[in-house]
Amino acid sequence: MKLVRCHFPNIAQVAYEGPRSSNPLAFRHYNPDEVIDGRTMSEHLRFSIAYWHAFCGTGTDPFGPRTINRPWEMGTDAVSVAKVRMDAAFEFFQKIRAPFWCFHDRDIAPEGRSLAESNRHLDKLIAHAKDMQKATGVKLLWGTANLFSNPRYMCGAATNPDAHVFAYAAAQVKKALDVTQELGGENYVFWGGREGYETLLNTNLKREQDHLAAFLRMAVDYADSIGFKGQFLIEPKPKEPTKHQYDFDVASAIAFLRTYGLEKHFKFNIETNHATLAGHTFEHEIEVAASQGMLGSIDANTGDPLLGWDTDQFNTNVKELTLAMMSILRAGGLGTGGLNFDAKLRRPSIDPEDLFHAHIGGMDAYALAFKLARRIIADGKLGAFVAERYASFDTGFGRDILTGKASFRSLEKLVLSKLGEPTPRSGRQEYLENLLNTYLHPV
Questions:
Q1: Residue 308 pLDDT grade (very low, low, confident, very high; cuts 50, 70, 90)
Q2: Global pTM?
Q3: Cβ–Cβ contacts within 10 Å for residue 438, how many?
Q4: Of 142, 224, 293, 374, which sits 20 to 30 A from 176 (CA to CA)?
Q5: Among this protein's residues, is 29 annotated catalytic?
Q6: Which of 104, 121, 274, 280 is catalytic?
Q7: Choice among 107, 299, 312, 364 that is catalytic
Q8: How far is CA 122 from each of CA 81, 125, 228, 286, 427, rounded to the nearest angstrom?
Q9: What share of residues in the chain are helix, strand, coil (percent, to 5)?
Q10: Residue pLDDT, tens place only, 91-140
Q11: Rounded distance between C-alpha atoms, residue 189 and residue 187, angstroms
Q12: Short-list 374, 314, 368, 359, CA closest to 29
């Protein structure tokens, strides 16, 4: 079904033209219809567009006001403007050939003077989104609630010291779950942007973590009561806007979930820029989640290594993405998750066409990384090296260690009587880095 309005009249649906193409509005590596291992690339990569950056972003930063003004943002009635914005969004989703989209409740519908009015606004936009999804075939990857922008959440939502704010946040998440369910969302994300503290002088850390666990448990119970079958995801972030955030990284969030018996209900939505803010690599966070069976989805962006804040740039670093895709593929993929472009245009990129250039670059980079990662894994050289490095634990006393048959006493006896001093073995890091480059930069 053709959309009524045409907000990008000079841009056709983006086509795949292959690696030799010089067309800046064509895919060079991402062919959504190409079948690999019985699935299309679209099904493997499950690209999603972040509504908040792509269609609510205005180019503002901490030092200056908006630079981006879209023609569809005209009008005085906020709900009517939101509907036109959504028309533009779904036209873009179609033309960029993205199978999914994501949103916060306050992205797609204006906040009212009360929760009841906000809910009425949201209902109108959800009805419109339902029509747009049916017309275009674009699906909802996940929904979430904005529990960080309004001043009521200046001290957190679930961790706020005021029970009134906690109750308001619970009501807002209830509604967000309802509409995510109504739109067929495959996941629901919790990002605790202000779930943390600035100073211990006014904070009871234990109580705040208890309150956060109670909030998440209520969400699980409510989802069960409405038959929501989607996956709950937590998106870790170490800092910004809050100095000490409770979901610092995947490892600390796993510890939190296990402490409160919630680990069976949650997986992780991992963001590249958040990983680096925590002092980790992107692939490290993926591996930590995957090692515990808790890898869920990816927010596809990157930061600037020269800036210490969350810049949310489009990631075109093929080496970094290849390492990440290797971790994702070894984990068996993302399941109901996807690659969501939680990335925004740079402040001077003010033309509507820039939205296409940005997403084409990101989609091509991930598609190329996906192909390279498959080739590296299939070739087996890196995998064989790692397997051989740990092979001593596969047989003999090494296997006894892992099966519980060995003890400190038995191992001491073995070292004293037979093994003696270990012979160090090279990790051959430089060789492996050179080997990786033969895939990334073939002759």
A1: confident
A2: 0.95
A3: 12
A4: 293
A5: no
A6: 104
A7: 107
A8: 13, 5, 19, 34, 56
A9: 50, 10, 40
A10: 999 999 999 999 999 999 999 999 999 999 999 999 999 999 999 999 99
A11: 7
A12: 368
- Annotate 377-414 with b (16+ C-beta within 10 A) or e (fewer): eeeeeeeeeeeeeeeeeeeebeebeeeeeeeeeeeeee
Question: What residue type is assigned to position 275 of the chain?
Answer: A
Among candidates 68, 61, 96, 39, which has minimal Cα distance to 350?
68
What amino acid occupies position 297?
Answer: S
Distance CA 376, CA 353 (A): 35
8 A C-beta contact, residue 234 and residue 268: yes
**pLDDT tens per residue, range 264-286:** 999 999 999 999 999 999 999 99
Pair 308, 276: CB distance under 8 Å: no
Is 110 in contact with 56 (CB distance < 8 Å)?
no
Q: What is the mean pLDDT of residues 18-25?
A: 97
Condensed to tens digits (0 to 9), the pLDDT of residues 370-387 reads 999 999 999 999 999 999
CA–CA gap between residue 432 and residue 385 (Å, rounded): 9
- At residue 106, the 3 state secondary structure works out as helix
211 tagged catalytic: no
Rounded Cα distance, 399 and 384, in Å:
19
Share above pLDDT 70 across residues of the chain, in percent, rounded to a whole number: 99
- pLDDT score for 193: 83
d(CA 253, CA 236): 7
Cis status of the peptide bond prior to 151, with omega within 30 of 0 = no
If residue 288 lies in a helix (H) or strand (E), which one and from where to where?
Answer: helix 282-291
